[in-house]
Amino acid sequence: MAGEGEKKRVLEMIQADGADEGCVTFVMHDEDHTLGNSLRYMIMKHDDVEFCGYTITHPSESKINFRIQTRAGIPATEPLRRGLNELNDVCQHILNTFQARVAEFKERQEQPMN
Q1: Among 5, 12, 14, 41, which is most exposed with the fewest C-beta within 10 angstroms?
Q2: What sequence ranges are listed for the domain DNA-directed RNA polymerase RBP11-like dimerisation (predicted)?
């Protein structure tokens, strides 16, 4: 447990002894299927990723083990970073579209009816 003034880790990187940088398990704390499934989808779209999957360690724990294996010696952190950025872009697009439609709806509601 993190002490006072000490930040709790959000992401841990676990690598087996002797394994290359292309085969890594990331432990993401305070996350669940919402991030796991969507991030896995974003990462698996790329050809340089051989495997990407996640597991929920236990229903009472709010963390996921997220595994990435890459091809051609590419570090697993690269597809993770790229996937997070792409997922962020998609979420931002959804938010912008939603806010624009809400604004349009409110404008229509304020117009007098004929």
Answers
A1: 5
A2: 23-96
Whole-prediction pTM value?
Answer: 0.83
Instruction: Measure the CA–CA gap between 76 and 79, rounded to whole angstroms.
Output: 6
Residue 22 has which token pair?
């292309």
Residues 34-73 have pLDDT tens digits of 999 999 999 999 999 999 999 998 988 889 999 999 998 8
Can you tell me which residue has the tokens 């938010």?
A: 95
What is the set of domains in the chain, with CATH numbers? 11-109 (3.30.1360.10)
Helix pair 33-44, 77-110: axis angle to 10 deg: 110
The two tokens of residue 30 are: 């305070």
Measured CA to CA, the distance from residue 53 to residue 38 in angstroms comes to 11
φ/ψ of 49, rounded to 5, equals: -105, 120
